[in-house]
Amino acid sequence: MTEDLSPAERYAAARERAVEQATALAGFREMYEFGLDPFQIEACRALEAGKGVLVAAPTGSGKTIVGEFAVHLALLQGKKCFYTTPIKALSNQKYADLSRRYGADKVGLLTGDNSVNSDAPVVVMTTEVLRNMLYSGSQSLLNLGYVVMDEVHYLSDRFRGAVWEEVIIHLQESVTLVSLSATVSNAEEFGDWLDTVRGDTQVIVSEHRPVPLFQHVLAGRRMYDLFEEGEGRRKAVNPDLTRMARMEASRSYNPRERRKGKMIREADRERERRQRSRIWTPGRPEVIDRLDSEGLLPAITFIFSRAACEAAVQQCLHAGLRLNDDDARMKVREIVEERTAAIPDEDLHVLGYYEWLEGLERGIAAHHAGMLPTFKEVVEELFVRGLVRAVFATETLALGINMPARSVVLEKLVKWNGEQHADITPGEYTQLTGRAGRRGIDVEGHAVVLWQRAMSPEHLAGLAGTRTYPLRSSFKPSYNMAVNLVEQFGRHRSRELLETSFAQFQADKSVVGISRQVQKNEEGLEGYKASMTCHLGDFDEYARLRRELKDRETELAKQGVNQRRAAAAAALEKLKPGDVIHVPTGKYAGLALVLDPGIPAGRVNGHRGFEHQDGPRPLVLTAERQVKRLAAMDFPVPVETLERMRIPKSFNARSPQSRRDLASALRTKAGHIVPERHRKGRAPAADDREIARLRTELRAHPCHGCDEREDHARWAERYHRLRRDTVQLERRIEGRTNTIARTFDRIVALLSEMDYLRGDEVTEHGKRLARLYGELDLLASECLREGVWEGLSPAELAACVSALVFEARVSDDALAPKLPSGKAKASLGEMVRIWGRLDALEEEFKINQAEGVGQREPDLGFAWAAYMWASGKGLDEVLREAEMPAGDFVRWCKQVIDVLGQISAAAPREGSTVAKNARKAVDELLRGVVAYSSVG
Questions:
Q1: pTM for this model (two decimals)
Q2: H helices of 154-209, where?
Q3: Are 351 and 343 in contact (CB under 8 A)?
Q4: Which of the four, 82, 280, 293, 874, has the lowest number of CB atoms within 10 Å?
């Protein structure tokens, strides 16, 4: 109390309050109804002191307050502030928030789709927009004082992460950087790098959640706490869950055992029934109903499948769930009709509007990338207003806009990562469950995981207990980046700049640990060498002979395998349509009819030159009515034609009836034929002179007669393995230093070969490439250079440009994509030919796509849909032909529009129709659902 202070202490406290009141932070705090947290105050004070800041804190903790303080400081100081976000949805949301606070005249918006008041002192934009400004030397950068990078942990994203590093490296030194990140375990390392490239940067890490999170497991009718109640940081797993998992693993009842004649007592069966009655995975309607009764709604249920999200809504509707009363239903209908008023009636039916509206009126909705952006925005608005209380979402929602809930439900702890089903990581678990608990509304948040068979409570506790994940750079130089850097800084300075990247910073730090391991290995090698010493002779020489013998035997075995593969490939090349064959192994083993031998002159369905690398890939109809493109691995031995059949001209591989009829004819024609078994020949090693020589030398060596020979040999093998590992570590050390700069050198060498660069000079071709951003920047530039798109109509140009952006979610090897005929088809073929030439050049210059550098093959899968839409076809027809959800269709159209805009700016102005037709194509694509979707 002030009464207990001495006069001097009271005077000092009054002075301190007066100083505090004079700061910008004091005025900023008065703008908020709630008090700021300690980490927010610390970050704001550092900003006001002129330092850059990195703020790492959990989702929902209020990191953006620090970004808003940077906006406040910029306006006070008469400077500009750019607020960058990773996705357009976040940009739109932040623009709306800042406009309400500071007035629409002071805030602008710049995304790929929208440009609103772009000369305002505060501009919200996607990170790519700022990167493009930096490379083009935009006038908008004048008087820029602050840049806020929201969700800076996107820097780890392998597709887009490089953009964040480009911005951080290239911003003027006078700009203060505010980096806002989720809680990462190496924030200090990231802060050290920021300190190196940006100057004085203060790292503020907060692991405190403003709303405590409680973890649960829902099994059967009961909700179990994941952890036991107790003090201390290390919490014990609930023993009920551990017991339940053990009990499920040791269930005695097994129907197979019963069939074998094993008797199971009635008491055992009764115990089994009781266990089953307690442990099951509740259905989706049951889960929502249970959460509602416990007062745990609103809830987001994460399901790692778009189709399953839609199915979950339908299951809840069929179960009769109603989470809204009549007043809420009326409000929902009013908002929905207002937000969708611009959508034509004929499109509403195609988009599933009425089924979607029924779910919303009951307070239930799905949220995923396949939905129309307008529909997603409505779901988000209704959820925030409390008019939708149960949302079934894919994990993209966890990385997106501000949409907190009281509870988060995870159906499974496994998701498809594009290659396989894999366990979710602690970082992903933290990101997903971080949505639970609304600050200022909920006293506590709840994360609920549904019980699944073979679930490990200990594994779940590990996910829940590991609160952070490391930030890893995904930075790689690109062709566009190279020409922009050389144009601004020259080659030498550009190389130095790239060596300051976070990727190189991490690589250099990792070398320290590897060097220590090399030293340990060298000490171990000395010990192994002493143990393998033989009194009869040089055991190192004897061990070398043994290795050479083993290597020669392995080499001959490989040669035998390669010869068999070559023979099998030669046999495949002789196949013709109508040949009946026997597939010897693999998933589709058995009788099959060749529809297409799979030896095309050019590209086939996204496969990078398989005709040269993997051999022919015949398309066959199996006796089980499946049409599949087989690979060389399905034919370990040469295949023989058993019979010939005529394939009807009317045969359609897409038609189940057509496949059924032809498969039936196949079985009738050749079902009785038994293929001959392949006989193995004499092993090559039996007649090899080199093997005979090595065996003779081995037997003649003095160490061959040593009683402890095998003991020495074991130590020699350990020595050899450790020596090999040490050499590999030394190569890693050599490879990790200057890795980014070496990749840059290879890219510059290729661009110089193609006349995009001449020393430090950027040619006209290079200046065109500098305006083209995207994964296939060099391919787009070469198409402009060679006039591939000249004379195309706007719709045909849209079809061709779609191949530069589209990537199929799931590759379909069986059937080639449908393409527009005429000039568009010829141009698409020419694009593939140019890509083949670039691919060969990249191989020559050692530019490796596996490392994230270089040009992937263009995907023609969206060309037909883009052509139809740009030709004015209706939404129903286009979506049916494209076999694609409306949200995906809109997103790909927006990306095609973005690249068309770049092409119109980069294309020659004189003697070319491309720039004019690119602008026309944009106008023709930007209609209907694409035009009225404000978020791409």
A1: 0.69
A2: 162-170, 187-198
A3: yes
A4: 293
